[in-house]
Write a structure and sequence with these properties.
Order of helices and strands: HEHEHEHEHEHEEEEHEHHEE
Largest sheet: 5 strands, parallel
Number of strands: 12
Strand content: 15-25%
CATH topology of the largest domain: Rossmann fold
């Protein structure tokens, strides 16, 4: 069963890779995928791994339930139509073992009664086949945010410099720093790669989407803007590696 059209599969994977770069999965999140169709199961697990998740997989409900009980699982993605134990029974058994673990149901069946039953017995969301890989990642991320509200706000830090990514806020010595959208994105990328050299090419690609040879001075201009705003009171984290790129140093002089 080709639940993602072959013509869009490559572009779907590319979008997943971009999603993973821009929305990194914090910590180790383990997702259990249970589907008796090998091709579907493998494509889902590959997509989740590209996005930074750890995965476990099973080809039928009983095997999946065993994995659930013997491993730390943060989310289950389960097909409804399976032999031995269908997705509905799997959800009920999971709810008996741990009411807090979210479950995403997959099915080619979209009858209102099936949707209602899945949600009534405790599924957190329901996705009908066929669906895109990008949609799957968005649904997974939304479920995990609801299940782990403490982790909903992503924060990055470098010494006295703090960024709340979700609120689009930056502070230095606990005082707010006003940044433009481009300054914010540049600082976000540097914070994500703190203490590592970021080449000019990689910064131009990540921040401006320039993935070809370019002699543009836009990067130097925005680095200068950032320095004026975050270099203060002896804290100067943004250093230049001449002819190569830039580093944001945690132990800044």
């Amino acid at each position: 069963m080709n639940f993602v059209p072959k013509a869009s599969e490559a572009s779907g994977r590319a979008r997943c890779e971009r999603y993973a770069r821009h929305h990194g999965v914090p910590g180790v999140t383990t997702i259990l995928v249970v589907d008796d169709e090998a091709g579907v199961r493998e494509l889902i697990t590959d997509t989740l791994r590209i996005a930074g998740y750890e995965t476990l997989e099973a080809d039928q409900g009983l095997a999946g339930l065993t994995l659930f009980k013997t491993h730390g699982v943060d989310l289950c993605i389960v097909d409804i139509n399976m032999p031995t134990m269908d997705g509905f029974e799997f959800v009920e058994r999971v709810r008996e073992a741990d009411p807090g673990i979210p479950v995403l149901l997959l099915s080619a069946r979209d009858a209102p009664a099936d949707v209602a039953k899945g949600l009534r017995i405790g599924a957190d969301d329901y996705v009908r086949k066929p669906f895109s890989l990008e949609e799957l990642l968005l649904r997974v991320a939304a479920i995990l945010r609801r299940a782990n509200p403490v982790d909903e706000e992503r924060r990055l830090r470098c010494g006295p410099l703090t960024m709340n990514v979700d609120r689009h806020e930056v502070s230095l010595y606990e005082e707010p720093v006003e940044l433009s959208a481009t300054e914010f994105r540049l600082l976000e990328v540097l914070l994500e790669h703190k203490n590592r050299l970021m080449t000019r090419e990689s910064l131009l690609r990540e921040v401006w989407g320039i993935d070809f040879d370019s002699d543009t001075s836009v990067l130097d201009t925005y680095v200068s803007y950032l320095r004026k705003k975050i270099h203060r009171e002896g804290f100067a984290p943004l250093s230049t590696v001449r002819g190569v790129g830039f580093k944001l140093l945690d132990a800044a002089p």
